[in-house]
Specification:
7 helices; binds zinc ion; 60% helix; 188 residues; mainly alpha; globular
C-alpha cells in the first residue's frame, strides 16, 4: 500500500476540479476518508483471511465495483439536501476511492490489486511500479524503511497532486471570472 498520509492527497488534488465540492469541507473530508477505506481489509489478515482471498488485502475493497457501490451509498447519504449535485459528488467520491487501488498498483511490493473483484479475483499491477511499497508494520516503517517510501510518494503522488490542485484552483478562478463577466453582460 501507499501510506495512509498519501492516499488522501488525491482527494485534495482532485477537489478544485469539482466546483461545489471544493467549497464543502464535509465533502472534501469524506473524500479524504474514502481514499483510505479500502485498507480496512487489513483487519482480515488479523482474522486469518489469506492475502489472496476475495476478502483478503487488496481484494474486493480495492475493486472498482466496491468503489462505485460504496461511493453511491455515501453520496446518497450526503446529498439529501443537494440532489442536483449527486452525480458530481458520486464521481468525486468514486475517483477518490478508486484512486486507492490505482496507487497500490503502482507500488513495487505485495500482491496486485483485484480491480475486477467480485467478478474476477485476478490481481493486477501497472506495468511501471515506481512507488516503494509501505510496510504494514508500523515499527518497521519508523525504523527507516519509511523514508524511502515517503520520498517516492512525494515524487510520484504529492507533486503531481499539487500540480493538479494548483491548475484546478486557477482554472476555477478563471471559470468564475468568465461566469461573472457573462452574467454582467446579460445584466447590462
Ligand atoms: Zn491498499
Amino acid at each position: 500500500m501507499a501510506t495512509i498520509f498519501t492516499h488522501p492527497a488525491i482527494a485534495l488534488g482532485l477537489s478544485p476540479l469539482f466546483g461545489p465540492v471544493f467549497r464543502s469541507k464535509s465533502i472534501l473530508l469524506t473524500g479524504m476518508i474514502l481514499t483510505i477505506i479500502p485498507d480496512l481489509d487489513v483487519i482480515g489478515l488479523r482474522l486469518g483471511i489469506p492475502y489472496n482471498h476475495l476478502l483478503g488485502h487488496r481484494g474486493i475493497t480495492h475493486s472498482l465495483f466496491f468503489a462505485a457501490g460504496f461511493s453511491c451509498l455515501v453520496s446518497l447519504l450526503m446529498t439529501r439536501n443537494i440532489r442536483n449535485h449527486f452525480s458530481k459528488i458520486w464521481l468525486y467520491f468514486f475517483l477518490c476511492m478508486a484512486s486507492h487501488g490505482a496507487l497500490d498498483a503502482l507500488t513495487n511490493g505485495g500482491l496486485g490489486i483485484a480491480f475486477f473483484s467480485p467478478f474476477s479475483n485476478e490481481r493486477y499491477f501497472f506495468p511501471y511500479t515506481p512507488i516503494d511499497v509501505s510496510t504494514l508494520n508500523i515499527a518497521r516503517f519508523f525504523q527507516g524503511q519509511g523514508i524511502s517510501v515517503i520520498k517516492s510518494e512525494i515524487i510520484w503522488i504529492w507533486i503531481p497532486c499539487l500540480f493538479v490542485f494548483v491548475a484546478g484552483v486557477f482554472g476555477l478562478k478563471k471559470y468564475n471570472k468568465n461566469l461573472y463577466k457573462n452574467t454582467k453582460k446579460h445584466d447590462d
